Amino acid sequence: MGEYQHITHTFQPVYDEHSKILILGSFPSVKSREEGFYYGHPRNRFWQVMATICNCPMPHTIEEKKAMLLTNDIAIWDVIDSCDIIGSSDSSIRNVVPADIAGLVKKTQITKIFLNGQTAGKLYRKYIEPNLAFPITAEVLPSTSPANAASSTDTLIKVWGETIHGKQ
């Protein structure tokens, strides 16, 4: 299965002062860490889902991905700043140091927080929510990870689109 490694998040959140929606993952996968950007695994459906619900062309470069998000007032980050983890296994995560979500929210116009998958939801509720000084309820969406074989891409697009656009 591999050995635990202590990993610190190596890339910054994507946001600007106009961001209204924050989407949080748990922690970057090995592939994302190699790529140096969010949702780097080729089978992760995040970018396809976002492009579809934002009615934008599929972004391919990091700059295109950032531009698509910021044009649509969307910020992304992860719940965890650093942790011990085996590979990309969310279930192996321990010794969590949470990201400063409250600090990010203060710099933006964020009014909605969405969590990409159950693990992000559990970590958010455990490490972030108890320390928040703002009344933003976070909603868990089905994971775009290839590990979530129960949700088709079409289902993800439908649920994410209805939830994000219906809650703005």
Blueprint (SSEs and pairs):
Layout: E1 5-8, E2 21-25, H1 30-35, H2 46-53, H3 62-71, E3 74-78, E4 80-85, E5 94-98, H4 101-106, E6 112-116, H5 118-128, E7 138-141, H6 153-166
Helix pairs in contact: 2-6
Structure commentary:
The protein is an alpha/beta fold. 33% of the residues lie in helices and 20% in strands. The strands form two sheets. It has a four-stranded parallel sheet with strand order 3-2-6-7. A three-stranded antiparallel sheet has the order 1-4-5, covered by helices on one side. Helix 5 links the parallel strand 6 (112-116) and strand 7. Helix 2 packs across helix 6 (153-166).
Features of this protein?
3-stranded antiparallel beta sheet, globular, alpha/beta, 6 helices, 7 strands, 4-stranded parallel beta sheet, single chain, 168 residues
- Report the order of strands and helices: EEHHHEEEHEHEH
Radius of gyration: 15 Å
Structural class of the secondary elements?
alpha/beta
Give the strand order of the largest sheet, numbering strands 1, 2, ... along the chain.
Answer: 3-2-6-7
Low-confidence stretches: none
Number of helices: 6
The beta-strand count equals: 7
Quick structural overview:
With 168 residues, this protein is an alpha/beta fold.
